[in-house]
Design a protein that fits this description.
By secondary structure, the protein is an alpha/beta fold. 35% of the residues lie in helices and 17% in strands. Helix 6 (112-117) links the parallel strand 5 and strand 6 (122-124).
Length: 181
């Protein structure tokens, strides 16, 4: 991802990532490879990034994009990383960005047709899925008292949690329905 900046120095790099978890993971990965500049974020990510930081997760300098930068097609966003939820790409917000290079961060990007459907120029294959044993170990390590399951095999995880004496339930999230296509 860092190398993209050198290939397209005149373009802003808009990375589409879910607001909860994936966006913060991408920010952390950029920081881990030495990217210390400000990362611009869509306003929808702001509160969740602040929440991560309040729990001690260091995300570095983040800034929402001021409206005047978008409205004036400000070239200062060229060669900058902008992280936004996938739903933002079809909005006026995205259409006003100066020549964005659209990157989509998803496990689904390994399916070529998925990348083409969304007008993605650069698919970035990053999956959120952990293996079963990791999920169960994490639940135990954090001493969860309640587990909310957002997608996948809800019934299996609900059963496993009940076997551990934990309350678990499926939680429907807006925006995740397209993952089952």
């Amino acid at each position: 991802l860092i190398q993209v900046r050198h290939l397209f120095p005149e373009r802003s790099i808009v990375v589409l990532a879910y607001s909860l978890g994936k966006a913060q993971r991408l920010i952390a990965l950029l920081r881990a490879v030495g990217y210390n500049e400000t990362i611009f974020i869509h306003g929808a990510l702001k509160k969740l990034c602040e929440l991560y930081q309040s729990f001690g997760i260091q995300l570095g300098s983040l800034q929402t994009i001021p409206l005047d930068k978008i409205e004036n097609h400000d070239s200062s966003l060229a060669n900058k990383f902008i992280i936004a939820p996938p739903s933002a790409i079809g909005t006026k917000w995205a259409q006003r960005l100066p020549d964005p290079l659209v990157v989509s961060a998803s496990g689904w990007m390994q399916v070529r047709q998925r990348a083409k459907q969304g007008g993605v120029e650069l698919p970035l294959i990053i999956s959120d899925h952990a293996d079963w044993n990791d999920i169960l170990r994490t639940i135990q390590e954090v001493k969860a008292t309640q587990v909310w399951i957002t997608h996948g095999r809800e019934d299996a995880l609900i059963h496993a949690c009940s076997q551990m004496g934990l309350d678990a339930k499926a939680l429907s999230l807006i925006g995740y329905e397209d993952e089952t296509e």
